[in-house]
């Protein structure tokens, strides 16, 4: 199922991997390099509404996410933010955190909020070609 929250985050162009109950998407506006959205494929608008199977599947997904970020970003921490203020369906923003900046495709991705909360207002809006390169790199490691 594709809900409006998944569509808002650029599906299908931003899809990294589809799971049984979740979509892992590259966040169109990169708060830090490798920022993603983990979105439930259901109509749930509150966390308790997702199925026990969806909760269980998160373990596999978080393992994939953290392995990808360790390999491509080398974050010092990873923040999982469940804000759901504008986009109604259950989803988390996955924000890798690091001191300084990381580089990819000739762009600098600085963590403007380090060491405090992530500064969502200073996200980098990338060209689609750069986003596609990040997605391709992540997908290659998920095979």
Can you put this structure into words, describing what you see?
This is Diadenosine tetraphosphate (Ap4A) HIT family hydrolase. It comes from Sphingomicrobium lutaoense. Residues 2-104 form the HIT domain. The protein is α+β, with helices and mostly antiparallel strands. The chain has three helices and nine strands. It has helices at residues 4-8, 52-72, 128-142; strands at 15-18, 22-26, 29-30, 36-40, 77-81, 91-97, 101-104, 107-110, 124-125. The strands form three sheets. Strands 1-2-4-6-5 form a five-stranded antiparallel sheet. Strands 3-9 form a two-stranded antiparallel ribbon.
Output the CATH topology: HIT family, subunit A
- Overall mean confidence score, pLDDT: 96
Q: What is the number of helical segments per DSSP (H or I, 4+ residues)?
A: 3
Number of strands: 9
Helix-strand string: HEEEEHEEEEEH
First-last Cα distance: 23 Å
Structural class of the secondary structure composition?
alpha+beta
**Strand adjacency order, main sheet:** 1-2-4-6-5
Shape: globular
Residue share in helices? 25-40%
Largest sheet: 5 strands, antiparallel
Spans where pLDDT lies below 50 across 5 or more residues: none
How many domain units? 1
Radius of gyration: 14 Å
> CATH top level?
Alpha Beta
Strand content: 25-35%
Query: What is the CATH homology-level superfamily?
Result: HIT-like
The CATH architecture can be named as 2-Layer Sandwich
